[in-house]
Design a protein that fits this description.
The protein contains one helix and six strands, in the order ββββββα. The protein has about 90 residues and is mainly beta.
């Protein structure tokens, strides 16, 4: 069985919108990557915290909404997706 194939990776900062706090929560700085699973053709976005080296977010790209620029910033992008990091642990 093949492991995941990394298609793209970049150091980034990740925020997640939490309804409970009614705002954006900083998940930290780390490596954001797009990976293709060795067992399927699906692509996932995985964010790994650079301090602890643990996955903080894992999203299926196929089920996410379109990537679009964040209002009011030319450096940030937003999308909507189900987070699978808890299921992977």
């Amino acid at each position: 069985e093949e492991g995941p194939v990394q298609l793209w990776a970049y150091r980034c900062k990740l925020y997640i919108y939490r309804q409970k706090s009614n705002g954006w929560v900083d998940l930290g700085t780390g490596k954001g990557s797009l990976c293709r699973s060795g067992t399927s053709s699906g692509v996932e976005f995985i964010f790994e915290d650079e301090k602890n080296k643990i996955p903080m977010a894992r999203h299926s790209v196929e089920t996410a909404t379109a990537l679009k620029p964040n209002a009011g910033s030319d450096k940030t992008w937003v999308w909507r997706a189900q987070d699978y990091v808890q299921e992977a642990e």
